[in-house]
Amino acid sequence: MLIVGHRGAKGVEPENTLRALRRGMECADLVEVDVRLTKDGIPIVIHDATVDRTTDGTGPIKGYTIEEIKKLDAGRGETIPTLQEVLGLVRGKTGLVVEIKEPGTEAIIASVLMDQMPERLILVSFHPESVAMAKRLFPGVQAGLIYSQNIDDPVGLARSVQADLILPRWDRVSREVVDQAHSAGLLVVPWILNDEETIGKALQLGVDGFASDDPCAVRRYLQGRGVELHVPSG
Question: Residues with catalytic annotation?
Fold first, then answer.
């Protein structure tokens, strides 16, 4: 059972910051970040297309250079980290899930990843074309298709882009989907699971892991239930 720290540890620290990632690394097998490009083409870690919700700034990411965006407060005095900073933090300690937010940015993101490959890397996206490109750029790296909408054949779509796993929103998970994915050799890692009731249901369905906003809380719960877990190296 893999535990993925959603945006590091979004439930307890400012999301997608180094502070959140450090907290997530205490208990998660992998920490997840969202990657977008600045005006000058630097991969940074932020979920939204604008800085409004998560910083003290306003406006689109595309309107900021890296120097300008580093002046913003992303919560508790944290700055928006670059992907390079994140790689330096997790390398040799924890696996990393990189969500590609913008189709067409895959090659630039890949160039940064190649310089500091984490011990385990999973590239994921809502965009099938980004998943396919990720597999072309990194044939030996796991890639996954995220989805929240009702897709007729998510397993077929994932296989068509050479994905290794599917990451459905929790309300899209069913025994049928899990069984179909496993029969096709795909892992199933839903999001976002935070409460004991939901996690219990996920275990019954046979998922392979899940993303959570509070990795340490869910690890304690799973350990209490005797679920076999990996031991975080960080």
Answer: 6, 47
